[in-house]
């Protein structure tokens, strides 16, 4: 049985689909701070199977104990956390408290109940702004915002705990830019308010909720001057977690792995691919660079293939097709 924290969220719900399809029993906890419990109804509609859900905060030690005393978990997939870079600069206390204290509480309860396996959602943001892409896992890490620091600190906490306890089994997954949605269009990413991230923003332009996309800078040293990122289909990303679980069946210690495609696309290339997939025009406005952005970031994805036997299968056209399918149905 697998415990999925943050399992009603964007990546968590897609991972629940893959877990259930692969025959795992799944328990989800989430405080519903950034998602709705209904996403698990959609997961059931897609898979024909149910997860057990508890509305529990990872900072709630007693609540966690109750969940751990009802089930025996072979592993935890830990998605729960706050993820908005800009908000983390305005409310650092909130981010450190939720992400760091929450994870410490979770780890404490896992230890009490003898649960030694964890797959952790880290981020390519830990490569900071001083590395040249493609990013490899052994590059020096640094951060430019509190959100990023919470990821790096959690990586460190998990590493130290695994050093002290030789039975611990940890995979740190550094996600690049997850986009797209389940091909059913039943689950996807629908942030509240005006989206910060590129593809949710484009979706809102395509369905007419926003007039145009601001392109943050066209004077970077990239193929067309706009920022380059490694976009990865959320279904591929979800499958990466199953590969990590399989790895942990046989290995102790800590493994750090990039989950990306290894391919970079510029903002304007994504806009073109989305326009093609949706048949909608996406008007753009060239705006100043966004503070904290790097010119280009994409993965060296070879370690994931070597260690986990996983690689991304879906390309930018499928990502845009599925993002549009979800947007046109649900946004
Ligand atoms: P999401 O916001 O959709 O999912 C996170 C879930 O965690 C939400 O359902 C939220 O309600 C829940 N949550 C937050 N704090 C909680 C708490 N204290 N207790 C219980 N539940 C809590 O985000 P996502 O895009 O699915 O991201 C999942 C994880 O992946 C996060 O840790 C995020 O930082 C990480 N990540 C995301 C991206 C990305 O671009 N989406 C990139 C790199 C890493
Ligand atoms: N962009 C625009 N206009 C927008 C939004 C974004 O031009 O309205 C550009 C950005 O400048 C950047 C690219 O689109 O060049 C991607 O931006 P996103 O905000 O979608 O993604 P980031 O790469 O900035 O950050 C994301 C997550 C972080 C995570 C990081 C690495 O938001 O949490 O990927 O995983 F840390």
- Please name the fourth-level CATH homologous superfamily of the domain at 2-179 and 232-262 and 298-312: NAD(P)-binding Rossmann-like Domain
% residues in beta strands: 15-25%
Order of helices and strands: EHEHEHEHHEHEEHEEEHEEHEEHH
CATH topology of the domain at 2-179 and 232-262 and 298-312: Rossmann fold
Please state the oligomeric state of the protein chains shown: single chain
Number of strands: 14
Q: In what order do the strands lie side by side in the largest sheet?
A: 3-2-1-4-5-6-11
- Please compute the radius of gyration using only Cα atoms: 19 Å
C-alpha termini separation? 33 Å
Q: Low-confidence parts, pLDDT < 50 over ≥5 residues?
A: none
Q: What CATH first level of the domain at 2-179 and 232-262 and 298-312 would be assigned?
A: Alpha Beta
Gross CATH architecture of the domain at 2-179 and 232-262 and 298-312 = 3-Layer(aba) Sandwich
Helix content: 40-55%
3D structure, described in words:
- The longest helix has 21 residues, at 92-112.
- The protein has helices at residues 10-21, 38-47, 61-70, 85-90, 92-112, 146-164, 198-206, 234-250, 267-278, 302-308, 316-330, and strands spanning 2-5, 26-30, 52-55, 75-78, 117-123, 169-175, 177-179, 213-216, 228-229, 231-233, 253-259, 265-266, 284-287, 296-297.
- It is 42% helix and 18% strand.
- Helix 6 links the parallel strand 5 and strand 6.
- By secondary structure, it is α/β, with parallel strands linked by helices.
- The chain has a domain at 2-179 and 232-262 and 298-312: NAD(P)-binding Rossmann-like Domain (Rossmann fold).
- The strands form four sheets. Strands 3-2-1-4-5-6-11 form a seven-stranded parallel sheet, with helices on both faces. Strands 12-9-14 form a three-stranded mixed sheet. Strands 7-10 form a two-stranded parallel sheet.
- Residues 83, 85, 123-125, 175-177, 196-198, 201, 213-216, 227, 229, 267, 290, 293 line the site of uridine-5'-diphosphate-4-deoxy-4-fluoro-alpha-D-galactose.
């Amino acid at each position: 049985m697998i415990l999925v924290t943050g399992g009603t969220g964007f990546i968590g719900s897609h991972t629940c689909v893959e877990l259930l399809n692969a025959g795992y029993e799944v328990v989800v906890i989430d405080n519903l701070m950034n998602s709705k419990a209904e996403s698990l109804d959609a997961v059931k509609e897609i898979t024909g199977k149910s997860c057990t859900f508890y509305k529990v905060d990872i900072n709630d030690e007693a609540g966690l104990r109750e969940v751990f005393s009802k089930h025996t978990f072979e592993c935890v997939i830990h998605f729960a956390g706050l993820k908005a870079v800009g908000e983390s600069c305005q409310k650092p206390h909130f981010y450190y408290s939720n992400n760091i204290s929450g994870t410490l509480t979770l780890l404490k309860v896992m230890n009490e109940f003898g649960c030694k396996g964890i797959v952790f959602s880290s981020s390519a943001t830990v490569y900071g702004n001083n590395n040249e892409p493609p990013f490899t896992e052994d590059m020096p890490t640094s951060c430019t915002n509190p959100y990023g620091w919470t990821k790096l600190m959690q990586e460190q906490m998990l590493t130290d705990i695994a050093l002290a306890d030789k039975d611990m089994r940890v995979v740190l997954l550094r996600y690049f830019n997850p986009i797209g949605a389940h091909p059913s269009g039943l689950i996807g990413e629908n942030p509240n308010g005006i989206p910060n991230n590129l593809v949710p923003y484009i979706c809102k332009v395509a369905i007419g909720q926003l007039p145009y996309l601001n392109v943050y800078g066209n004077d970077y040293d990239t193929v067309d001057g706009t920022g380059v990122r490694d976009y990865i289909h959320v279904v591929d990303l979800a499958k990466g977690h199953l590969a990590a679980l399989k790895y942990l069946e046989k290995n102790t210690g800590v493994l750090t792995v990039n989950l990306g495609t290894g391919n970079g696309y510029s903002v304007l290339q994504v806009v073109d691919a989305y326009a093609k997939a949706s048949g909608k025009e996406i008007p753009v406005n060239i705006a100043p660079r966004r503070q904290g952005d790097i010119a280009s970031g994409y993965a060296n994805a070879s370690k994931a293939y070597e260690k986990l036997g996983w690689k991304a299968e879906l390309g930018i056209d499928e990502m845009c097709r599925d993002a549009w399918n979800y947007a046109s149905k649900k946004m």
